[in-house]
Amino acid sequence: MKRAAWAFLWMFILVVSLRAQSYESSPFSRLNSNAAFTVTAPLSTMGSYNDAWWGFVYGAGYNISKHHSVLGEVMWNRLSPTSEALAPIRAALQNNDIDGHRNLVVLTANYRLQFEGRSSECT
What we know:
The chain is elongated. The protein has 123 residues and is an alpha+beta fold. It has a four-stranded antiparallel sheet, with no helix packed on it. Strand 2 (53-63) and strand 3 (68-79) form a beta hairpin. The chain has two helices and four strands, in the order αβββαβ.
């Protein structure tokens, strides 16, 4: 049952993203925004200290022209340590009920150069 739920979720994400690409861009607007759901999967040596977890990103900005814009974003991720990472702390305190989590918050400001619209195909 769990595998079927994951397969359905990934199929939904794939179909929604493909459907979203088929729309033409909207008329020029001065304000822009974006929102996203994130999944954090630690790589390499960090994988032994953190589990995969989730978060979100939200950004808003101003379009200076059709090609130039500035954007500010905030990203929040919740991180959870593995049992192996907590083992030394549990041993030092002689308490196996020790648990924890961390919150990662990042603020960014970006400049975006974009070219939208139809592209000419060479034949």
